[in-house]
Design brief:
The protein has 284 residues and is of the alpha/beta class. It is 48% helix and 15% strand.
């Protein structure tokens, strides 16, 4: 049975985690299928953006630690090593992808699932979402998650708080912490917002979107002086780019650039039946 579904609808590659009975846990099979689906999406000439979403009440409950730890012997250790390495490579591929990668969260996210969210460029959540880094309860740490949580989403002290406290945070708290970019009250509202976001992405230059992702990645950790020098070189190079010139000329003449496309999907982006929003945990 396939644990991940992938299809392209109106220029957007839809990748759906399809193991709701097990909370969309990440195991060797699902990690491999997810990585393969993402690679197909990036290579597909019809896909100009990606949406990662899930079926069921949970978005992703993280790695299937019980399965990975139960595999004894040399073969079991090798399987665990492959799964962890493939997951790490997947996060890097999502972050570096030339396409915009969006994520829709409509349920619980734990442990390795948080890594999937943090590696996305655009994160939209509904009130049903919650987030939790619980690895230290099991004697582990979210080692593969932290590079993306720290570099892209939250300050170091907030990341340390999330890891050490193992506290589940609600969607509004996640918005305040910058774990999510937009919080919508319902699936219907999320559907409308996603259509607007992808509509704008499909009107934008694919090359410019790719350049924007690459350039923002290069700026991480740079000093203002280094960033300014990089910006000058990048902008001068883009001003000589034929596609950029074509876009500027079209704008000047009141025409549409050749990459302009309307987003008219055949199916929904969001899951319409959602779980109830999680209750806020009591704080001591």
């Amino acid at each position: 049975m396939s644990l991940v579904e992938q299809q392209v609808d109106a220029g957007v590659a839809l990748i759906t985690l399809q193991d709701p009975e097990h909370g969309n846990l990440l195991d060797p099979q699902s990690v491999e299928e997810l990585a393969a689906a993402f690679e197909r999406s990036v290579r597909d000439p019809q896909a100009r953006a990606v949406l990662l979403r899930s079926a069921g009440a949970a978005f992703c409950l993280g790695m299937d630690l019980a399965r990975l730890s139960a595999q004894g012997g040399r073969s079991g250790r090798a399987e665990a090593k492959r799964a962890v390495g493939r997951y790490s490579d997947l996060l890097a591929a999502m972050f570096r992808a030339p396409l915009p990668v969006a994520c829709l969260v409509q349920g619980e996210v734990k442990a390795g699932g948080v890594g999937l969210v943090c590696a996305c460029d655009i994160v939209v959540a509904t009130e049903a979402a919650s987030f939790e880094l619980s690895e230290v309860l099991f004697g582990l740490i979210p080692a593969n998650v932290l590079p993306y949580l720290l570099a892209l989403r939250v300050p170091p002290q907030k990341a340390r708080y999330l890891v050490l406290s193992t506290m589940r945070i609600t969607a509004p708290e996640a918005l305040r912490l910058n774990l999510v970019d937009e919080l919508l009250p319902s699936a219907e509202a999320a559907e409308r917002r996603l259509r607007e976001i992808f509509g704008r992405l499909l009107r934008s230059s694919p090359r410019a979107l790719s350049q924007a992702k690459d350039f923002t990645a290069q700026l991480i950790g740079r000093t203002p002086r280094q960033a300014t020098a990089l910006a000058r070189r990048r902008l001068l190079r883009l001003l000589r780019d034929p596609q950029a010139l074509q876009g500027v000329m079209a704008f000047r003449d009141g025409d549409l650039p050749p990459w302009f496309s309307r987003f008219n999907p055949a199916g929904p982006m969001a899951r319409w039946r959602e779980p109830e929003p999680p209750a806020k945990e009591d704080r001591p």
